[in-house]
């Protein structure tokens, strides 16, 4: 069941990415996977919302880049993805 949920998440994330890349030359398929290309480590006092504001991300993008993240239980030193790219 966990594998199915992960695949569903990846598919939904890719669909959002397709919308962002609409009109681009590169086509995106459901077989593509997102790979994180930019990280930060969480520091005390930051929230998911403050991080999205600081790095100009939507909450949907941030959630897609960090699928297993629980914003209510962030811990200091946790690595968070800020940018993901399509892997083939």
From TrEMBL:
Pfam name, any one: LysM
Swiss-Prot/TrEMBL keywords: Chitin-binding, Virulence
PROSITE patterns reported for this sequence: LYSM
Sequence ranges assigned to domain LysM in this UniProt record: 38-82
InterPro entries: LysM, LysM1-like, LysM_dom_sf
Transmembrane segments: none
GO MF annotation terms: chitin binding
The protein's name: LysM domain-containing protein
């Amino acid at each position: 069941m966990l594998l199915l949920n992960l695949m569903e998440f990846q598919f939904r994330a890719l669909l959002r990415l397709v919308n962002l890349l609409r009109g681009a030359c590169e086509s995106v398929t459901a077989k593509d996977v997102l790979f994180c290309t930019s990280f930060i480590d969480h520091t005390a006092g930051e929230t998911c919302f403050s991080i999205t504001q600081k790095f100009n991300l939507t909450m949907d993008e941030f959630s897609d880049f960090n699928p297993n993240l629980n914003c209510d239980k962030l811990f200091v030193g946790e690595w968070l993805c800020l940018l993901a790219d399509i892997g083939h």
